[in-house]
Specification:
Pfam families: Acetyltransf_1, ATP-grasp_5, CoA_binding_2, Ligase_CoA_2, Succ_CoA_lig. It is an enzyme of class 6 (ligase). The protein is α/β, with parallel strands linked by helices. It contains 31 helices and 37 strands. It has an eight-stranded mixed beta sheet with strand order 30-31-32-33-34-35-37-36, sandwiched between helices. It has a seven-stranded mixed beta sheet with strand order 9-8-11-10-12-13-14, with helices on both faces. The protein is globular, with a radius of gyration of 32 Å. About 1% of the residues have low confidence.
């Protein structure tokens, strides 16, 4: 089932209303009336208890309707819905909207009904929106399949809401902003169609420019992440989500039937997928309006210009609360302001032009601030007082804004006195907000949107950690897998410190060695060997890390101290944990020169899969609670952004003489740790204590907890991840006809520079045959399509001469979610054509297609591309269609 199937929901040519009625107070009355009055296609009322509804003949069931039906809208009691869905499947109705309530959100019995509907849906391959959905609107088609009597005007916004009751209010807000909807969707319980499906659909919908969402819970974060990342680059996705606190989260669960999850994980999901999260529903429309502005702020530095001190102070507080910055005005700017403004006005930011300022004062101030390189945007506040000139100022601002490369936002305070000037601003494309605080929020949303887009676009720097998995995937990784299987078979879930550190050392993560001693004498000998001071800690599979902190000793300076400490630790452990095996002690090197402590770990969340958390450690962790979370995989960009969301960079600047070097080492550390999380879905939780010293960053303490319930790695080794990692399994070595070895591997974002150089080896003929049109100058944004891909949706592979670090061939396999076919394209640089690489790339893409369970693989070729046509025919492709200059070749995958 694909997103194309959703066309039957949003662009149906016929609709059956099941539960149609004209009885006042009935759920189906509004639905029936709306579809009969406005819908352009055929509407068939279905009700076995009525002959007519609103004077129109009804049918007793969908089986009686003489014509085919594209969409069924169901508004009958919950217990009747499973049978109705079955009847829809039997007459090949491809899509349904279930408006009825009384399912998972209400009771265990309702949950069973919903499960039953789900099984029927799978049996017939239907798409279902709901249950418990308000319905959908498609204004351009005059389709109002909701119970609301108001239909939006057509526009460019797709609004997706998880709250049905919020629908009428949203439509009222939309009308107040004088903007239209391409669609309005109430998702309900998301038995089938969910946020990811809808983002995919509206991302490709030509009527939709912006996607707005009210989200309460995301059931499939992986699908959401993949869809949002795919379209956030080209269409703003703006959402509002309540449930930041346990109390509000509990309130949500009462009507969606499940707990939404930890809000910090949602924050990371939205940030990583490129969407903007706003605080208030009204901000959705204001932010949408602002993101349609021709330019976005390049930084968080805002200049505030006001004619009233109070609103200026309010804006300043809001700016700092949202981690923005008051723009630091240059000396040149201040001198110009001193020349243009009255002596008693404030020339520092926020700039108070005073209550008696006129239009010229405002315009002089605005022009000066726009020229200041330290200003990323301007918020202009106008409070009606003294001489009134809002319309004149608004018209002047529109002219300035047309030429400005920096965003200008406005806050015209009041209502009736400034409404006309607000219309002038809005019609002129200038965002205008109701309060200073909202103006600041919208500015920061604009900045966040650009920053998140840059995260999607940014090319990571190569890390040495990128090669770690390849070195260890055969012997060391298999050895660790053997350990995990043995421990789980022994019914052990918690690894000891030395066992945990063995995992880290395999991935070249620096650790303080942990050595095991069975006797006081052995502990003393080990201490002397590794050097004093040393620390001791109990080693027992029955005593976890947290419990063992009180059964330890540190700063031991002699063999005598070590022996005494050993005896005390074992005695204390036997006393506190009489059933535990406590005959061993960990000996490790003590650290004296600790500059700072950090915390790093991972945890497997039931909804979001494996999550990485990082922040300050030790006493600082308790004082600052400064921890950030993200999802694996982490490349250099993601690792850096994770660190930047904590106070650690400032800590390195304060305490380290080489902060940039230390930061680079930390990013390597995080990337390697991320790969460990990726490779071992058996790991339920990891906790690491890190110490920063002059010699580097080390893991002092570590504990890994395994998933005792087991994990079917053979079925899907990446089921614990919501972002598909780099697919190591597709790396292979091949020989070219001239004897040279080429590595065929999936492309990486780090390959951008190499791919650009590869394109330089194309002749005009090669460019024409690959891209079919003259190729313009390749930009960084163009490279995103080739190198920064979603491995879950598509695949691009390169042929690389590793010794020369040179890419000589490129192949792509492009698929859509739910599709069973994919398109391939292959190109080689001119110096390497005729060496057999094209055949090897196509063969690799076919194998990848099989792995993705595709049924067909196809490609488009120019008719004179005889070399590639020969490769395709040799590998079993058949010519399916011929055009004047092109042919389509298709391979049926077996």
């Amino acid at each position: 089932m694909t997103t194309r199937d959703l066309d039957k929901i949003f662009n149906p040519d016929s609709v059956a209303v099941i539960g149609a009625t004209d009885r006042k107070g009935a759920l189906g009355r509004g639905l029936t009336a709306n579809l009969i009055k406005t819908y352009e296609g055929e509407a068939y009322p279905v009700n076995p208890n009525r002959d007519k509804v609103f004077g129109i003949r009804t049918f007793s069931s969908v089986k009686e309707i003489p014509n085919s039906v594209a969409l069924a809208v169901i508004a009958t009691p919950a217990p009747t819905v499973p049978q109705i869905i079955r009847e829809c499947g039997e007459v090949s109705i491809p899509a349904s909207i279930i408006v009825s309530a009384g399912f998972r959100e209400s009771s265990p019995q309702g949950e069973k009904l919903e499960e039953k509907i789900g099984k029927i849906r799978e049996e017939y391959g239907m798409r279902i929106l709901g249950p418990n959905s308000l319905g959908v609107m498609r204004p351009s088609r005059n389709l109002n399949a909701t119970i609301s009597d108001k239909i939006s005007s057509p526009g460019g916004i797709a609004f997706i809401s998880q709250s049905g009751a919020l629908g009428p209010s949203i439509l009222d807000w939309q009308a107040g902003y004088e903007i239209g909807f391409s669609s309005f969707v109430s998702v309900g319980n998301m038995l089938d169609v969910d946020f990811g499906d809808l983002i995919d659909y509206f991302g490709k919908d030509p009527e939709t420019r912006t996607i707005l969402m009210h989200v309460e819970s995301i059931r499939n974060p992986k699908k959401f992440m993949s869809a949002a990342k795919g379209f956030a680059k080209t269409k703003p996705i703006i959402l509002e989500k309540p449930g930041k606190y346990p109390e509000s989260s509990k309130a949500i669960s009462s009507h969606i039937g499940s707990l939404p999850g930890d809000d910090s994980l949602y924050e990371s999901l939205f940030r990583r997928s490129g969407v903007v999260r706003v605080e208030e529903i009204s901000d959705l429309f204001s932010c949408s309006e602002a993101l349609a502005y021709k330019c976005l702020p390049r930084g968080p530095n805002l200049a505030i210009i006001t004619n009233a001190g109070g609103p200026g102070a309010m804006a300043t507080d809001a700016l700092l609360n949202h981690e923005g910055k008051l723009a630091s005005l240059s000396n040149r700017t201040i001198k110009k302001l001193e020349k243009d403004l009255a002596p008693y006005t404030s020339k520092s930011n926020p700039i108070d032009v005073s209550s008696d300022a006129n239009v010229e004062d405002y315009l002089n101030c605005i022009g000066t601030c726009l020229k200041d390189e330290g200003v990323d945007g301007i918020l202009i506040i106008y409070a009606p007082q003294g001489e009134s000139y809002p319309n004149q100022l608004a018209k002047a601002l529109v002219k300035i804004s047309e030429k400005s490369e920096k965003p200008i936002l406005t806050c015209w305070m009041g209502r009736e006195k400034v409404q006309e000037s607000r219309n002038v601003l809005r019609n002129g494309g200038i965002p205008t907000l109701n309060t200073p605080e909202q103006g600041v929020r919208i500015f920061m949303y604009m900045y966040e949107y650009l920053r998140n887009k840059k995260l999607l676009y940014e090319t990571p720097k190569p890390l040495s950690a990128d090669n770690i998995p390849l070195k260890h995937q055969d012997s060391q990784r298999k050895y660790l897998k053997t350990i995990t299987k043995r421990l789980i078979s022994e019914n052990r879930s918690v690894l000891t410190e030395d066992e945990s550190k063995r995992f880290l050392q395999t991935y070249n993560i620096p650790t303080i060695g942990a050595y095991v001693a069975h006797t006081p004498e052995k502990a003393a000998d080990l201490a002397e060997k590794i050097g004093f001071p040393v620390a001791l800690k109990i080693r027992s599979p029955n005593i976890d890390r947290e419990s063992s902190t009180g059964i330890a000793a540190s700063n031991l300076e002699s063999k005598t101290e070590v022996k005494e400490a050993f005896k005390k630790i074992v005695s204390r452990a036997e006393s506190q944990y009489p059933e535990a095996k406590v005959r061993k002690v960990i000996v490790r090197k003590g650290i004296r020169d600790v500059h700072y402590e950090l915390s790093l770990g991972s945890k497997k969340d039931p909804r979001f899969g494996s999550v990485i958390f990082f922040g300050r450690g030790g006493i600082d962790e308790k004082l600052y609670h400064n921890v950030a979370v993200d999802f694996p995989p982490l490349n250099e960009v993601h690792a850096r952004r994770l660190v930047e969301r904590t106070k650690v960079p400032e800590l390195l600047e304060e305490l380290d003489d080489e902060p940039s070097v230390r930061l680079r080492s930390l990013l390597e550390y995080l990337a390697r740790f991320s790969q460990l999380v990726i490779d071992f879905p058996e790991i339920k939780e990891m906790e690491l204590d890190l110490a920063g010293t002059k010699r580097g960053l080390f893991t002092v303490d570590a504990q890994i907890t395994l998933d005792k319930e087991g994990f079917s790695v053979e079925a899907d080794p990446h089921a614990h991840l919501i972002i598909e990692p780099y697919p190591l399994k597709y790396i292979q070595k091949k020989k070219l006809k001239d004897g040279r070895e080429v590595t065929i591997r999936p492309i990486k974002p780090e390959d951008e520079v190499s791919v650009l150089k590869f394109f330089d080896t194309f002749s005009e003929e090669t460019r024409r045959r690959r891209f079919f049109v003259p190729m313009k100058e390749v930009t960084h944004e163009d490279m995103i399509r080739f190198t920064n891909i979603d491995y879950w949706r598509e695949m691009a592979i390169v042929g690389a001469l590793e010794e020369e670090e040179k890419i000589i061939g490129l192949g792509e396999l492009i698929t859509e979610p739910g599709e069973d076919s994919g398109e391939i394209a292959v190109v080689m640089g001119d110096p390497w054509q005729g060496l057999g690489l094209g055949t090897k790339l196509v063969e690799s893409l076919i194998e990848i297609g099989k792995d993705k369970h595709l049924k067909k693989i196809w490609g488009s070729l120019q008719k004179d591309n005889f070399r590639m046509l020969h490769i395709c025919e040799k590998l079993g492709f058949q010519v399916e269609a011929e055009y004047p200059d092109m042919i389509k070749v298709v391979l049926t995958v077996r």
